Amino acid sequence: MADHEPGWELYRSFLAVMREGSLSAAARMLGMTQPSLGRHMRELEETLGVSLFARSPQGLSPTDMAQALLPHAQAMASASAALRRAATTRDGAVSGVARITASDVIGVEVLPPILAAFRQKHAGVVIELSLSNQTENLLRRDADIAIRMARPTQDALVARHVGKIALGIYAHKRYLKANGRPSSMADLVTHALIGFDRETPYIRAMRPAGVPYAREHFALRTDNDLAAIAALRAGYGVAICQCGIAQRDAALIRLMADSFELYMDTWVVMHEDLRRSALMRALYDHLATALIDYTASSSAKPVRPSTLRAPAKRRS
Question: What's the pTM value of the predicted model, to 2 decimals?
């Protein structure tokens, strides 16, 4: 191994090759020439004294060593990005760049008006919104603030519980007019259910006992929650949906509200070191306040007049 440390640009090139799968694609992503990127890879291998890629006519294949180094290079990239974001923030000013991570549904259906209101008050703020149903690592600074559905366990994180998001069973009134209305949980299996393709541990933990909501019953299977909501709105079938989202559309009818009620705990989380940033404190507080309002409003069970619904008793 050489006696000098590889420069960050070599690790950046390594990450690009790992992500893109070839020198040519990685070079395009970085705006480099392929020979220059190839020199970066050779220099990194020589400096570290390891082989990172097996070369063949079919292209590059990462070695076991490359796979072992990947999470460390990703951590370096996250730290570099966090450093750049921190450098955009002036002392005491609510300005600069902040990165938020949230699930696809929260990011698309819930956060936009919340972030728009924040931007109206603080025009010097740039938001990076990273949407994924995977939990990003705040300790590694993959993001500054996260919206999570589970309480974090790391001591270095600051978390605020903002309530429980209510979930209900819904169908579009067009679907119900054509197919009738299920009168019990057992009836659900006779309808076009919309659900997941792969059952995750989180889904298994969330699913209430006695509800026939399993993969073998689904008429549409997708692991993209936004696609499931779109199918629900299109009248494809019956699906579980956040009540706060469904309540915006009078055509979405809640089914068996007295029989089915599910809640997701919701948290706003950031690294404790970011409390010194005026921007992060302001954004953290704004998100928490707005999401408290959202979770509170979504727990209601409004009854909408509809020719498809039998007269219902008044619900509190």
Answer: 0.69
